[in-house]
Q: What sequence folds into this?
């Protein structure tokens, strides 16, 4: 009965997963699995990670200090019954820094000290590995524009998103994706979430040095063809943009993504120009204008395929 109650308590937990502007609450899902401890620790913030390591460190020393006291005078030169002396002796043993005037005095003391040294060796290896992975884990450092824009490009309505590489070296083998999501009703009257990949003018670059704009042409084959902001609102439509590339410095793939709601889609506006040619082969990129947009002139505005 107790085992069944524990199982029900474990499976009735709720887990919150946040993706973009949405939160998914997983009900009756196991919150933790001991096999996922390594992954879980890597997802902690640095402050939470440091607090966890400090807490485990103090807990281990408290346990071994208690074990030393249980052995009576198992450690020479310690004050009888002094928990603080036993605690700091445990700290020195765990770190294998030497004891000074204190040392194991009995067979029991030697056994506990040996066990603690082994715990210290394994613990140091694990903590060192976790810290190394946290420091070496690559981050994308890729910035997306605050808004996506819809404006004529080469005379055709086009959805555009701007990206910038904030690293001071070019990323390589960059792959770009745009996904359109909206709610639709099936023939049975059920509301389902549909996902439509949007075809880009280019979805791959050999190198990605500074900033660029990815474009989806809204023609008759586009899932966006004929849609208006009102359609976006009714169907709770969203756009998901992502980029996957390789950082050549650490030779590791990095990924970043963002989501655009209806309020983040600017209709009949285009991005301000940020490139200026200073000399032959030398271009200046003004990141202060990265998010700026400008209105499309009335003579440029078009009703082909999409309306504002």
A:
């Amino acid at each position: 009965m107790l085992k069944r109650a524990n199982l029900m308590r474990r499976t009735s937990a709720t887990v919150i997963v946040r993706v973009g502007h949405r939160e998914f609450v997983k009900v009756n899902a196991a919150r933790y699995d001991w096999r996922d401890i390594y992954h879980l620790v890597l997802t902690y913030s640095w402050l939470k990670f440091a607090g966890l390591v400090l807490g485990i460190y103090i807990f281990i020393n408290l346990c071994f200090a208690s074990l030393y006291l249980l052995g009576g005078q198992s450690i020479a030169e310690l004050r009888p019954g002094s928990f603080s002396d036993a605690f700091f002796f445990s700290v020195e043993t765990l770190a294998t820094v030497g004891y000074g005037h204190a040392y194991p005095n009995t067979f029991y003391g030697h056994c506990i000290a040996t066990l603690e040294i082994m715990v210290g060796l394994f613990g140091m290896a694990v903590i060192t590995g976790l810290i190394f992975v946290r420091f070496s884990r690559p981050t994308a450092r890729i910035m997306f524009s605050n808004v996506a824009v819809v404006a004529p490009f080469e005379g055709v309505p086009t959805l555009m998103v701007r990206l910038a590489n904030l690293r001071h070296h070019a990323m390589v083998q960059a792959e770009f994706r745009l996904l359109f999501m909206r709610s639709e009703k099936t023939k049975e009257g059920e509301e389902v979430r549909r996902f439509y990949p949007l075809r880009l003018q280019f979805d791959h670059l050999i190198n990605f040095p500074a900033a660029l704009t990815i474009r989806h042409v809204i023609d008759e084959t586009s899932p966006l063809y004929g849609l208006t902001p009102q359609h976006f609102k009714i169907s709770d439509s969203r756009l998901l943009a992502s980029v996957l590339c390789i950082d050549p410095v650490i030779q590791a793939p990095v990924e970043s993504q963002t989501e655009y709601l209806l309020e983040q889609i600017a209709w009949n506006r285009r991005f301000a120009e940020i490139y200026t040619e200073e000399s032959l082969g030398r271009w200046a990129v003004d990141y202060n204008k990265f998010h700026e947009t400008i209105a499309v002139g009335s003579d440029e505005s078009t009703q082909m395929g999409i309306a504002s």
